[in-house]
């Protein structure tokens, strides 16, 4: 016998993937690659950190991260500085320019989403979607089934 969730989960996966694809298509012309924006988003959300932690947060190999950090630094979207606590450690932080780039990208998608919700959904559906968003954030924070990479 199947659990009730075995019917719900495929629908959620499909909906999330299709909405994510649509949101990606609504990005500004000439926007930065999503891989770089992901790094900026992590730095904006969690604050400055060493490259090893950034790699772990983004689930990247250090070699891939090194190349991406170089690009971000060249564009002045991040800055590196020595840690006050451990002078051997280099911390990476998002710059004001990096925050501007990230904000521009997010804003374009937010504007599209708000317009689409206004045009497509009634008030009750928007309230349900708001509640679902909170639930989905809770799921996104779950460590269920996560395999730690030693």
UniProtKB/TrEMBL annotation:
Superkingdom of origin organism: Bacteria
All residue ranges annotated as the HTH marR-type domain in the record: 5-138
Keyword DNA-binding tagged: yes
Transmembrane feature ranges: none
Molecular function as annotated in GO: DNA binding; DNA-binding transcription factor activity
Pfam families, per the entry: MarR
Alphabetical keyword list: DNA-binding, Transcription, Transcription regulation
PANTHER family tied to this protein: CONSERVED PROTEIN (PTHR39515), HTH-TYPE TRANSCRIPTIONAL REGULATOR RV0880 (PTHR39515:SF2)
Protein name per the record: DNA-binding MarR family transcriptional regulator
């Amino acid at each position: 016998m199947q659990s009730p969730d075995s019917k719900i989960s495929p629908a959620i996966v499909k909906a999330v993937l299709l909405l994510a694809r649509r949101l990606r298509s609504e990005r500004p012309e000439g926007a930065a690659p999503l891989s770089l924006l992901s790094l900026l988003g992590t730095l904006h959300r969690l604050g400055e950190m060493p490259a090893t932690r950034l790699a772990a947060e983004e689930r990247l190999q250090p070699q891939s991260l090194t190349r991406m950090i170089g690009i971000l630094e060249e564009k002045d979207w991040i800055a590196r500085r020595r840690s006050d606590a451990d002078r051997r450690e280099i911390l990476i932080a998002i710059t004001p320019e990096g925050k501007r780039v990230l904000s521009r990208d997010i804003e374009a998608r937010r504007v599209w989403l708000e317009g689409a919700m206004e045009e497509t959904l009634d008030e009750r559906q928007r309230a349900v979607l708001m509640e679902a968003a909170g639930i989905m954030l809770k799921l996104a924070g779950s460590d269920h089934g996560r395999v730690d990479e030693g």
